[in-house]
Amino acid sequence: MQKEVNINDLWERFTKGSDARSFEVLFHELNPRLIKFCTLYVHYQQVAEEIVSDVFVKCWMDRVQMQVVEKPETYLFIAVKNQALNYNKRFSSIQVVNIEDHDGGGILINEASPELELEKKELIFKMDQAIGTLPRQCGIIFRLIKENGMKYKEVAEILNISHRTVHTQMLRAMKKMSKAMDPYLKKANRQATDNLISTILVLFIFMGN
């Protein structure tokens, strides 16, 4: 069983004790999620990777000053967002891009069944397309909560908006997602497939927070 990583403990060890190993573990734990988040603001995966890397380097260089940070994960998301916005100001290009490398949200599916696996991938692709049609802020909020597992309060802090705004945007996102996916669900030919797809969709959209 994989040991649960405590972000706050890692942050404290590397900021107060200059523990390089803790910094490395923190980087590997948050780097993929921060890159995915960053791609919501910038065009290219490589640019997102560079932005996130720069943020981590700055954290290490300024680790003594970083001791005052009480919510390191939230701080890192905000720092990445600000760097991405600065990049967009310089290059005048903002685009929401699809996120790859989905894991199905932890839904257990028989990997031995090619048909079910194909249906799962098709569903994920359709859902990704549907998320891409959401207004930019609405889509970012939806991804942070449903793909990064963040709480409404955390998202509000990262995006510098009210908790009520996050809640309202999530309601809008869920309504739009349900409407966008409805035609696809109706195309399912088999009842078993209908049940599988519906279960995945409901769990993905409505669980959490």
From TrEMBL:
Organism of origin: Chitinophaga silvisoli
Protein name: RNA polymerase sigma-70 factor
GO terms under biological process: DNA-templated transcription initiation
PANTHER family (UniProt xref): RNA POLYMERASE ECF-TYPE SIGMA FACTO, RNA POLYMERASE SIGMA-70 FACTOR ECF SUBFAMILY
Tagged with keyword Transcription regulation: yes
Family according to the record: Belongs to the sigma-70 factor family. ECF subfamily.
A molecular function (GO) term: DNA binding
Domain HTH luxR-type: 149-176
Domain of life of the native organism: Bacteria
Entries under NCBIfam families matching the protein: Sig70_bacteroi1 (TIGR02985), sigma70-ECF (TIGR02937)
Annotated InterPro entries: RNA_pol_sigma-70-like (IPR039425), RNA_pol_sigma-70_dom (IPR014284), RNA_pol_sigma70_bacteroid (IPR014327), RNA_pol_sigma70_r2 (IPR007627), RNA_pol_sigma70_r4_t2 (IPR013249), RNA_pol_sigma_r2 (IPR013325), RNA_pol_sigma_r3/r4-like (IPR013324), Tscrpt_reg_LuxR_C (IPR000792)
Keywords: Sigma factor, Transcription, Transcription regulation
